[in-house]
Amino acid sequence: MSYPQLDSFAFILLLFVFVAVHELSHSLVARHYNIRVRKIVLYPIGGVSEIEEIPEKPSVEWRMAVAGPLASFLIGLALFGAGQVITVEAAPIPVIITTRNFLLNLAQVNVLLGAFNLIPAFPMDGGRVFRALLAERLKFTDATKYAAFIGKLLGVVISVLGIWYNIWLVIIGVFIYIGATEEAESTIVSTTLARVRVKDVILPLAAVASPQTTLADALEIMFKARSHDILIEIDGNLQGIVTWSEIVKINPERRSSLLLQQLPVKQVSTFLDDPILEAYKIMTREKIDVVPVVEKEAPAKAVGVVTNQSIAYAYEKARRLR
Ligand code: ZN
Fold this sequence. Notes:
This protein folds into 3 domains: 1-118, no CATH class; 125-194; 199-321, CBS-domain, CATH 3.10.580.10. The protein is built from 11 helices and 8 strands. The chain has helices at residues 4-32, 58-85, 93-116, 125-135, 140-164, 167-194, 198-201, 215-225, 244-248, 276-286, 308-321, and strands at residues 37-43, 46-51, 208-209, 229-234, 237-243, 270-271, 290-294, 302-307. The strands form 3 sheets. The protein has a 3-stranded mixed sheet with strand order 3-4-5. Strands 6-7-8 form a 3-stranded mixed sheet. Strands 1-2 form a two-stranded antiparallel ribbon. Helix 1 (4-32) packs parallel to helix 3 (93-116). The model has no long low-confidence stretch (mean pLDDT 83). Residues 22, 26, 46, 68, 117, 125 line the site of zinc ion.
């Protein structure tokens, strides 16, 4: 007796496990080189590991990229071996044949997954290997553009072929095209942005007050400075910021009697030499729009601020430059 539905369910379940192992092997190599992996997204035709930063050394990147397909090939090989070994005397012939076919099919899909991912185009792993090879000779951003171009071209060719042969190819082609575009965009924007420092987008201090300032006065200072949050200083020493949203939560009638020190103060700051992505991380984490900027030598003295808008502006500029 066989259970086709149960078989195909187990097949898909195991396939997902093996795709996860493929992705995990990327992360293991990444971890080995101290690159943090933010999350892993599993797609039907493979997974995508989102890493926190792009490895600067091409030799690290290609090792990371190759690990996944290698894992898929090894899994395929192991399943193929297991399929050959099955000769349990006691088991009835149909069970042996079903199990063997099951294992061999699974082996085949894993080998296909590994091979597919070696195609030298984004967003496949092979695209990363290809970029790493190109990056030895070309600028990193140019290498990315070439790898993405090949990915887009491949996506179009596969989709067009799919119109005649198989609708699934159209879907895979579209997936490759979108993946290649996104990969190139995010890589180029983040590498361009990684070079922009806080000191490149710093704005002068505008909205500053002492802890004894009333909320009404603070709002006026913020309004005049067009600042979304206000810096708190005591004798020129930075205490932190109080946000606009905390202030406007207070009933307007009480704003002329309540003082800034009665509201929560967020102790945040960023250094002049930090990449603006650091400041951006603080903003998203703390849900604020303004981060005080300090010098490493004098961390209590604010020399300016970096705002959400100035980062957005730098981002737009990076996008247009690409
Ligand atoms: Zn992979």
